Amino acid sequence: MIRFYYHPTPNPAKIALFLEEAGLPYETIPIDTSKGEQHTDSFRAINPNGKVPAIVDTEGLGGKETRVFDSTAILIYLAEKTGRFLGASEDRAELLSWLLFVASGVGPFSGQAVHFQHAAPEKLPYAVNRYRREVERHYKVLDEHLAGREHIVGTDFTIADISAWGWLGRAPRVLANADNPLAPFPNIKRWFDAIEARPAVARARAVGKEHEFKTVSDEESKRALFPSNYPPAA
């Protein structure tokens, strides 16, 4: 059984999609990051970095409970454990390259673009421009790569597709364009629409819907989500 620590944000969404695609039994444990639940001692024992997603595999390595945190690490772990969505062995280097392209580029730059456009107390033109333009550059790299390709790596659906889908699904918010944000990237649009049509996507999007997560942005939320902006407690 997988205990899946979840909040409805892009990185946990990736794990939800993998679990649904693979048909693995799992228990969803909501972590309300706007209430600061990611900073509790009990959760920090699972992820010392205080971020979601994280999992605990009760039947992990050597039959022992195994914790895994960081969405890319979880995807690799689950793919290796199940033998699913790893692609061909000869494409292993390519798979790792694109996974880390998302992990070190698309993800963090998208997150910062969202922060400076929607959460920062001051809309700093330099910061907004910097992160928006870098996101668009990453999208262009992926768009050019996907020309004539059905999947990011090889000929099969892999964890590289799952990882990129998690963030590309937030393109309207990342690019602050709710109408048609992927229009300038037709190959991404084609690829993304094909993934969206997979039955597991609807199930993944339904994960955690029964839980009412906090949506109000107040002082508690800001301190919970951006603790580095505040001095440590005396």
TrEMBL record:
GST N-terminal domain boundaries: 1-86
CDD domains referenced in this protein's UniProt entry, alphabetically: GST_N_Ure2p_like (cd03048)
InterPro entries: Glutathione-S-Trfase_C-like, Glutathione-S-Trfase_C_sf, Glutathione_S-Trfase, Glutathione_S-Trfase_N, GST_C, Thioredoxin-like_sf
PROSITE patterns for the chain: GST_CTER (PS50405), GST_NTER (PS50404)
Pfam families: GST_C, GST_N_2
SUPFAM superfamilies with a match to the protein in the record: GST C-terminal domain-like, Thioredoxin-like
Domain of life from the UniProt record: Bacteria
PANTHER family on file: DISULFIDE-BOND OXIDOREDUCTASE YFCG, GLUTATHIONE S-TRANSFERASE-RELATED
UniProt-recorded name of the protein: GST-like protein
All copies of domain GST C-terminal, residue ranges: 88-217
